[in-house]
Write a structure and sequence with these properties.
single chain; 592 residues; alpha+beta; Creatine Amidinohydrolase, Chain A, domain 1; Creatine Amidinohydrolase; 3 domains; six-stranded mixed beta sheet; 18 helices; 20% strand; globular
Length: 592
């Protein structure tokens, strides 16, 4: 079936079931950002491959609501699908709810699959639409009947990490979690989010591309811990280890049944953003629900000393791989055919040579010239272009290692840059330096760091449509909450031990894109009469290209930081490079 035929088949079912509108979110029963193939519903229905968006279908309109990162990509991928792009004003906001409220009439019904909608979103839909007389049908999967050859759930093996990597045992983590549950007077706690599961049980897998997680749920009380998982994924040794830690293993599908058997009068902590509505509906009447963020989401965001030290070692490995890649690129450009797809393959090979490499932490974004203006671009055989000795090349990539997760963006000059390209590059660099070197008082939140980072761009009337930074997991998801650096007033303090990206950018559609990204660790700075102050340690170790820099746009502090940073890269990576590689890096890292 073509996408237009699939859309017609969905509308036919809507008509048969009396639905005026149908919602297809980008989610799975774990409310994941990145999905197993079985739940790539938006791609199946429309052809859009982005990791954020919502399809809304009526009989006379079909739209994809997504944010600025995907505008150009969506325009291209939706062409001929029957779906239109609807541009979000606020990233991640469910603005389609207001659209539905203004479009539908009293007595109309909106359908969705409750396995793919979070508790919080389901409650918001009810809150906004029910007063208007619009009904909600929450158990409608209109894709499965038309999805021929729909992928099965993944069966990749899972494994446990030792404390020499994680720094804390599952037993200790469960004890900390139970203390939090006791304070919140929660008798039970349901965890669905896969990175929380991976952290709590020191468990990793390969059920989702680029994210080393395992499809699983957990139900925890003061007395018991039940892990719902396909036990065939675990070795006998790992099963014994989990059971020794007091973990009972049950089949993945059993979670609904055990939730339905919870005793009336008990209480359960449910994270409304990280649990699907279908599981929430299984709770019996009389069970008191406490809506709050998973305690583990906060716990895993703050890295312990073992995780931090392992991450520092990982950054050396990743920096060596990137140094060898950029030297290879310079040595071979113009001598052999190099394309966006081939550079991603070469970079992966350099990373794979490093000890403990598991895989990429996301699909490499290799954008030459105009493709760099697409923040989440991924080259395809149709879009792939050859790199020439001209213009800017943007490379956003990352690796998963047993010792940590990396995420780095660099832009390099391939030759003949314009004055505008150099100006934009330098302004982005200024923003990255200012954000990532900020000193700030305890209690500061991400939107404040976001503003500090954007100010050098705002001073020149420039801006970017994505957030400034996101949390990063330890050998886990490259996007990790609860903290973010973006304009949204997220009520989460920046705490010591958090690892976050700082990645401002400037994008000129059909011309070029620039983004420079380092990962930083929140560390103590100073305590005085005005309180406790924090700052950041740069974890990322990779050369920042000085060829595009307009020195006159940088102040003395920024120049000094850039020179010192590039020398630090030489110092840290030097012992792991060949003499030829080190000589190349030293030349590139010369002070400006």
């Amino acid at each position: 079936m073509s996408h237009t035929e699939r859309l017609a088949a969905i509308r036919q079912q809507m008509q048969e079931q009396g639905l005026s509108a149908y919602i297809i979110p980008s989610a799975d029963p774990h409310i994941s950002e990145y999905l197993p193939d079985r739940y790539k519903c938006i791609y199946f229905a429309s052809g859009f491959t982005g990791s954020a968006g919502t399809l809304v279908i009526t009989q006379d309109f079909a739209g994809l609501w997504t944010d600025a990162r995907y505008f150009e990509q969506a325009q291209e991928q939706l062409a001929g699908s029957g779906f239109e792009l609807v541009k979000l004003q606020v990233q991640h906001a469910p603005e389609y709810i207001g659209w539905l409220a203004g479009r539908l009439n009293q007595g109309d019904t909106v359908g969705y699959d409750a396995k793919l909608i979070s508790v919080g979103l389901a409650e918001l839909l009810e809150q906004e639409l029910a007063p208007l007389g619009i009904a909600l049908a929450t158990d409608r999967d209109l894709l499965d009947p038309i999805w021929e050859g729909r992928p099965d759930l993944p069966t990749a093996p899972a494994y446990l990490l030792g404390e020499e990597l994680t720094g804390q045992s599952t037993t200790a983590k469960l004890e900390k979690l139970r203390t939090s549950l006791q304070k919140q007077r929660a008798a039970y706690h349901l965890i669905s989010s896969l990175d929380d599961m991976a952290w709590l049980f020191n468990m990793r897998g390969a059920d989702v591309k680029c994210n080393p997680v395992v499809l699983s749920f957990a139900l925890i009380s003061q007395e018991n811990t039940v892990l719902f998982i396909d036990q065939a994924k675990l070795s006998e040794a790992d099963k014994k280890k989990l059971m020794a830690d007091g973990v009972e293993l049950q089949p993945y599908e059993m979670v609904e049944r055990l939730l339905a058997e919870l005793p009336a009068g008990s209480s359960i902590l449910i994270d409304p953003k990280r649990n699907c509505y279908a599981l929430y509906k299984q709770l019996p009447e009389g069970v008191r629900v406490i809506h709050n963020t998973n305690p583990t989401t906060f716990f895993k965001a703050v890295k312990n000393e073992v995780e931090v030290e392992n991450t520092r070692k990982t950054m050396v490995k990743d920096g060596v791989a990137l140094t060898r890649f950029f030297k290879w690129l310079e040595d071979n450009l113009g001598k052999t055919t190099i394309t966006e797809i081939s550079v991603a393959d070469v970079l992966r090979d350099f990373r794979a040579q490093q000890e403990g490499f598991i895989g990429e932490s996301f699909d490499t974004i290799a954008g030459y010239k105009a493709h760099g203006a697409l923040p989440h671009y991924k080259a395809t055989p149709e879009s792939d272009v050859e790199l020439k000795a001209d213009g800017l090349f943007l490379l956003d990539s990352g690796g998963q290692y047993t010792t940590g997760t990396t995420d780095i963006t660099r832009v390099v000059s391939l030759g003949n840059l314009t004055d505008a390209e150099k100006t934009d590059y330098t302004l982005v660099l200024k923003g990255m330096i200012d954000g990532a070197t900020a000193r700030f008082p305890k209690g500061t939140r991400g939107y404040q760091i976001d503003a500090i980072t954007r100010k050098p761009l705002w001073d020149h009337a420039r801006n970017y449509g994505h957030g400034t930074g996101h949390g990063v997991g330890f050998a886990l998801n490259v996007h990790e909450g609860p903290h973010v650096f973006n304009p949204t007033p997220t009520p989460v303090d920046i705490e010591l031990g958090m690892i976050t990206s700082v990645e401002p950018g400037i994008y000129r559609p059909n011309q070029y894109g620039i983004r420079i990204e380092n990962l930083v660790l929140t560390i103590p700075d100073e305590i005085n009469d005005f309180g406790e102050f924090y700052t950041f340690e740069h974890l990322t170790l990779a050369l920042i290209d000085t060829a595009p820099v307009k020195k006159e746009l940088l102040d003395e502090r920024q120049i000094q930081w850039l020179n010192d940073y590039n020398q630090l890269v030489v110092e840290k990576l030097g012992p792991h490079l060949t003499e030829e590689e080190l000589s190349w890096l030293k030349e590139k890292a010369k002070a400006i």
